Amino acid sequence: MCGIIGYIGNRGAPGIIMEGLKRLEYRGYDSAGIAVIDNDELHIRRFEGKLFHLEENLKEHPLSGSVGIGHTRWATHGKPSDRNAHPHRVSDIAVVHNGIIENFADLKKRLLKRGHEFRSETDTEVIAHLIHHYLESGAGFEKAVQRAMKELAGSYAMVVLNRCEPDTIIAAKKASPLLIGLGKGENLVASDIPALISHTRDVVSLEDGEYALIRRDTVAIKDQAGKDLKRGPREIQWTPSMAEKGGFKHFMLKEIFEQPRAVADTMAGRVFADKGDVRFEDLDLSAEKLRGVSKISIAACGTAWHAGLIGKCLLEKFARVPVEVDIASEFRYRMPLVDRNTLLILVSQSGETADTLAALEEGKRLGATALSICNVIDSSIPRNSDGVIYIRTGPEIGVASTKAFVAQLVALYLFAVYLGGVRRVLSRKDRVSLLTEALRLPGLIEKMLKDEKKIIETARRFYHAPGFFYTGRGINFPIALEGALKLKEISYIHAEGYPAGELKHGPIALVDEHMPVVVLAPRNALFDKTISNLEEVAARGGNVIALVNPGDIRKVKDRCAAVIPVPLTSAELTPILLVIPLQILAYHIAELNGTDVDQPRNLAKSVTVE
Q: For tag attachment on the chain, is the N or C end more exposed, with fewer CB atoms within 10 Å?
């Protein structure tokens, strides 16, 4: 979950590395560091805390050189500290690493017996000592890294410098993302696309067990046995400006306001409403294959799991096929009933989520057909799936997912309509109606974003509250979970999401005048029951914040502390509109409490370790 950047070329490496680290800081911000080779000397700077500590040091004591590596850390082994920060150095070797070395304790014990001295608590330092050990044993730089790779169990994306071979960076990967950016007279390596797009659009992904020799004019990719591999680059369509804040105070707020475009881009070229057709360019799953599916299993983590819960409602209603939804970290440990007639859907913004990737591997081992819904093109999960639906939202930098979540819901909706047609459950007339309504979404979201005044007023009234309840029913219950998660993630206020009918089965004991309760009450088949639950809260002195359609405001306003209008749409699309004000509410409460919205404590954007 750490950010890695490396550069070799003819320009100043420190400036390029620092720029890359700024674009990767969302992946980890417990500490940061840089290593540069200049005039046959290896210079390392690393500091606990956010990136600006390193930046300030480099302003006061500049480094030069045209080859270097950098790292921003999210701690796994060893607390955040200067000595645990990367890069880790052993003699002439410097290493940055993302992942977890599962056998590091055994390797460390062995190396200690050989006289190696360790200075940190991290698993990463073992890598540097292993490489140094093989260099001392007479191996060359490449062979030393190759031998170290064979001894490492677990996951790693690592980039290595050797002071004695300043014209080469070596990068290696297993179960953690690593990309090589191809330039002219220069090349880069990074853990994510935003660090590369200011310098090149041509990118090569390393696969598990591979390593690369990166020089100024060449890149050689090899398998673990040292055999040369041929792989052409792919072109990245993101622009540098897509990774900037665009005038907004935070990336999260920018990404909230990008949602009309994100929804439109997810549907673009796929929806043919007049014909009732949905077409996916990378689905690669035949109609015959999909008609043979007897069960769908969805695996995802965090916000993507909430999307999966809504996907279950959509798929069961539109395609009439049973669906189960797993938190991905639990999937492979419960002996899931998955076989060749199961469609396994993996939902992940980054496409690198370790637990979701493990669920994919387990599902495929059991014979399932895998379909991934991802944002990052050619990331590990879609590369290893039988089919993919890219949500195409561009980079999402804020740790708390917003536009990717909404786009995931749109992708699941479109796939459910498509599958309903393939399985001959939905008529052409039904599909025309469902797709026509979906095309209204960008305009409806745009309208909501233009009027956030009521939400800001609500945030100002309740930002000191010690806790929140969020309630919803049916397809909207997962939005209650998502609203609560957003508040927890960025404001550090305890919040829980419940099915509205469950409040009286225990949680209502906590309701009093200090407890805001967000009630999702759109006009649908469960409206009257939800209003009854709202009244139960109001009768006990709870401060109700109700999200209702404009025509129902007068029915509830006398019993509510705040009422937030949500445009009317179909029941199946309502979750997409309901989540928008909850994102905005969480954002402004966090802002009023002075938390770090884009980089909340203890969290990282891509969870690439188990």
A: C
